[in-house]
Amino acid sequence: MDRATSLPDSLSVIFGQGGGFAGLWNGYTVQPDGLVLKWQGYVAENNAQAYGRLDTAGMQTLWHALSEADIMHAESQPIGNVTAYVRVTADTATHRVSWRPRPVGVEGATKLDTLMHKLDALVLGHKQEE
Prior knowledge:
Layout: E1 11-19, E2 24-30, E3 35-41, E4 49-53, H1 56-68, E5 82-90, E6 93-99, H2 111-124
Antiparallel strand pairs: 1-2, 1-5, 2-3, 3-4, 5-6
Helix pairs in contact: 1-2
């Protein structure tokens, strides 16, 4: 596996969306050790609480989805009332991209919308038991 597709030694991902009438932000942080934090509040990444954990295979799936979307080279798009974003740190490189989210499968949906759908599904599948 080449460097572009192999899991970085240190990978962290923050993704979510917010704005709108209420001004609330919600999303997830995946730390390098696989710990997943869920957050919600008037500021992105605020009020984080433990949510689950990705194992090595989950982290590899995460990196594959990010690589498939070419996230480290993705450009931000015009934002709207609601804004989605992904911030990735892979080893020493950090990249943030934001856009106006659209449901996957509708006209105007982008590879970033598909990525967000994949990221949501991945962390939802690793929720910790109560």
